[in-house]
Amino acid sequence: MNRQDAVPPLTSQVAQLLRQLQTSDTTTIRAGESELDALASGNPLELYDALSYLSTAPAAALGVADAVAASPVRSSAAVILRQRVVALDSAALERGALELLARCRDRALTALQSVQEEYLSSELRKLCAVVAALGGMALVCAVPSTPAEGDEADRRVAPWPELLPAVYALAKSEAARQRAAGLYLLSSLIDYLDEDALEPHLLPLHEVLSAALSDADPEVRTNAVAALRALLLVAENKVCLKFTDLIPGVLGAVSFSLSAFDEDDTRKMIEELIEVAQGEPAFFRAQLGAVVDAMVQIASSDALEDETRQVALEFLTVCAEQLRGPCRRLPQFRNQVISICMKMMTEIEDKQEWYTTDSVVSTEGGGEEENDDYSNADAGQGAIDRIALALGGKTVLPAASQLVQQFLQQRDDWRYRHAAVMTINQIGEGCRKQMESQLGEVLNLVLGRFSDPHPRVRWAAINCMGQMSTDFGGVLQRKYHAMVVPALVSAMDDSCHRVRSHAAAALINFCDEASASAVTPYLDTLVAKLMTLLNSNSRLAQEQAMTAVAAVAGCVDTAFEKYYESFMPPLKGLLRQSTGGDKRMRLMRGKTMECITLIGVAVGGDRFGADADEVMQILVENQRSMQFEPDDPQIGYMMQAYARICKSLGERFVPYLPYVMPALCETASHKPDIQVFPGGDADENGDGLVGSAAAAATAAGGSGNTTDANAPSEDGFATVEFGDKKIGIRTSALEDRSTAMSILSSFMSDLKGALFPYLEQLTQITVDNLTFWYQDMCRQYAANTMPELVTCAKDHFERAGQPQQAVAAVRELMAYLLPKVCAAARDEPEVEVQSHMIEAVGSILERAGPAVLQADTCLDVARFLIDMLKEREERVRERLLTRVEDSEIDEDELQNLEEADEWDDAVLSECADVVRSALVNAGATGFVVAFEAMLEPTAASEEHAAAGEATTTAAGSGAAVATPAAAATATSLAQLFASMLAQERPAAERRAGLCAWAYWIAHGGERGQAYIQQVFPAFALYLNDAEAEVRQAAAYGIGMSAQRCEAGLFSTLCGAHPVIAALEHMVRHQAAREDDASEEAADNAASALLRVALHQPQCLRPRETLPAVLAYLPLQVDTEEANAVVELLVGALRNHHALLKQVSSEEVTLALARQVTAIDEYLEAEPARAAREAFAQADPRLMQRIAMEMRNTGGVDEYEALQRFLQAGHA
């Protein structure tokens, strides 16, 4: 008898256990799994042998009639063997059971080589998976049979030289089943190889794949495409290009399947190609035209199944995303693909369910086919959105506009008009720049469909208006509110309840980006319409109107107070009466909480106070008495409601903290819910013995949840492939944790020292979330919360009249927090989050205040900034090398590099801001010294410290002196920022360098002022820079120099550099307010000229300069400088400055009035107080003339804003 024919000892027992696993009884399954686990632990070799035998045993050996009857046991054995193959293989090697190892390998390979029809196709795939698992590591990790002492058992792999020749032989076999199995096995084995291990096999692989792609058998062709995909995703780019001659064969295989009406195989092959397009897009570049033509033909064919057309469109969409440049250059690509998308968008059914839907829950899918499977309309909408984002408006808009006009002319078919409007809806974000220049025309086009005969088209037009309110937020509301708001109001009277409700939903989007002035003129009519919807018998209308009322209140703020009594009592009544467990009312209750609390924030705590207490009592009682399910939307609404009520009540919220804080803290500390799912095909994978048994049962026809009635589904989990499994993490739990973290941050911002009893717990939660790698937002919110912790400690002791304890507490807290946030920033993989952490360092210094930061900590902060700047510099250098060295870089990759540059620019800006915070709050205690100190980066410092070498020594003044060991890598912040002033540096670096030196001059005391003469030429030079952000920083530097410099030196510098003329040019230029960046630069120029007028008047041409500055005011974009201008103007009036001889005090007072009203909501407390004092001291008749002037020239809004400002002062 051959060795593979011998029946292993445990065969009968294991076979019985495998049959036991086919039942649906959980208790029986658990017992069988436990017995298998015991065998794996006590008799691993015998179990290995038995599973191997059973996975390939003939039907007769199993005592059954045929392959179908044998399949359950064989499939189960194969799946479990695959999952345990590493452990069992290692056990065989450890015990020297090489004969057993060879026997198990031979059984599986012999079964694949069998020409008899003994095994089902699904069994052959499982056996391929077993062989791949047995042989994959052997291909690259083979070691001598006697491993070195100390090697880990699971790293020893016996060689298997017979494997690949056997696989190639299978792939070339005369039997189609064997060819298919060989190719399937190849695709599995390639996943185990790296680039080096793959190299020797490239020629035979090319030969095998070339033949297989034209094979007559459909399974062979499909498996060949899968093997090619596996190869391309492992091989280097240059290797992949050697296989591009196979593309015609791939397209032929796809065409062959279509001709045979085999759309399942067609879809499988296209899905493999999608993976290639995502992972190795350059493979298609040379023959992109042919591939696109083939996919266009498939996606355009009405004769094919929807899923087939959708997968072809997905391929085209991925090409647009991954090969942007080639797709833009490809003739007709945009026209063909956009036409396909829009044609698919017309394939929408007018189902009755659409008209009867009466809850937001049913419409949250974002489309109109929410209750159906994924439709062609869904596919078309999603694809055209992604294509517009990928290719941009210059490419997409012309083609889309032409088709939109054609579709709108289809009077007899509403579906075309619907598709046209939804196209505008979908492409707005990607075509923003191009559409914004013709926004009025586009809006007229959409508004024209508000009166379309068909309700589905009216709904689409309203949906489009809501989306455009977001995509063109700010511009649309500011310029076109008179067109949009009345149209939405009118739509709330539509005969169709879905349309009426959606008008309220679109209003929410509009208000999210609107100022009060864009909504207030329509307030009475809006509120009346929304009240009507709230009182209707449609739950959908009520839910949308509820949120719309909240959005309007949040937008118009205190102007909503006159409607307060109309809304608050019925809203509270609704909250009380819907406290039961009715799931249908959960969303309504959540939206009621949202509406009540947003109204409360809008009208203020004085008006909302009593009702807020009542609402809190209801919510706290609900929290105590109700059992919330994990997916209950009320949980999120309730947490947000707590945050808003806290903001409204202030410290009156403190009594509720014992009821609110435990749940919030628990949620913010909740451990991630991680699950292991089967990877790949569910019938071929599992989780150890237990999961394998479940997967095997599914494969054999048993219940899919036989292992555990509560086994997790992948729904609601974000998953990543990890070997032959998927690791999943529940996304809702992560979102709840980040939401709780944001609300705790909000509490701390509002309550400050009142949260001191919770400070220790909150500090630990914050620090823990700072390194919570599963969710970026948790880390970001934690970074934003760090400064609030400092404020909490400081405020607590200062209120108690204990300033010394406040300093001590803050110093102790900073000693703990600063190293944590600095370490987290150094380890942070996401540059966006890293910039928030750097910002947190600066905010911590600001909240701590002066005289808290000590000299050694100043050096630590300086070294941290050096680390961040050096790390950023390295990232920028790598991207620069990529641009220079990669001759095949395309527009897509360049765009990705530019996006990365933008995030690193944010890091640079935050580093400069930390310098300012440190100088302002710790200049006197050591940061002036630290700024110039020669320091090593942290990594170098730690290496030297480990070697016993000192990196810096503190001189008597606290200065750090570099030792010889450190000299090679030591640098200073001063050097780094000085190097950024070079003209060849990027604009972001020039700006950061200018800002840092301006801060140094402004806050560095005598040491800072000593650098004015050296830095002034750079300020002067960059006033004429092509980039507005650089001009802004240069103008700010001139203003700081004027404020700090000695008069004689400043006159000399102005004589050598024509800065005054350059500043005047900036404020007078016709493009000064062309965009935010230009306006911010002009704002700083105006501020600088005012500083020169007050501190260096000898350098001005007063009769020309001052009128130009006053004519430019008010500053509106740079609110920080706007606050500074308020103080400068007040200073001029208060001190009767000489500039009042050149312009009248009335002109200055008018300029001050316009400035405070322009930035009313951004006006800081001290400038506001100073301005009110100046107005109080002015002649009442002068103030009356100014008010009338503002009403006549600035309109009612400006006049009323001034009245509100003055009345607030009286209050």
From TrEMBL:
Q: Which SMART domains does the record cross-reference, listed alphabetically?
A: TOG
Q: Mostly located where?
A: cytoplasm
The record's Pfam families line, in alphabetical order, gives: Importin_rep_4 (PF18808), Importin_rep_6 (PF18829), TPR_IMB1 (PF25574), TPR_IPO5 (PF25780)
Q: Name one GO biological process term.
A: protein import into nucleus
Entry-linked PROSITE patterns:
HEAT_REPEAT
One Gene Ontology cellular component: cytoplasm
Question: Where is the protein localized?
Answer: Cytoplasm; Nucleus
By its UniProt entry, which SUPFAM superfamilies does this protein fall under?
ARM repeat (SSF48371)
Q: Give the HEAT repeat ranges.
A: 484-522
List UniProt keywords, sorted A-Z.
Coiled coil, Cytoplasm, Nucleus, Protein transport, Repeat, Transport
Q: Where is the TOG domain?
A: 389-632
Which InterPro entries does the entry mention? ARM-like (IPR011989), ARM-type_fold (IPR016024), HEAT_type_2 (IPR021133), IMB1_TNPO1-like_TPR (IPR058584), Importin_beta (IPR040122), Importin_rep_4 (IPR041653), Importin_rep_6 (IPR041389), TOG (IPR034085)
Residue spans making up a coiled coil are: 870-897
Q: What name goes with this protein?
A: TOG domain-containing protein
Organism expressing this protein natively: Cyanidium caldarium (Red alga)
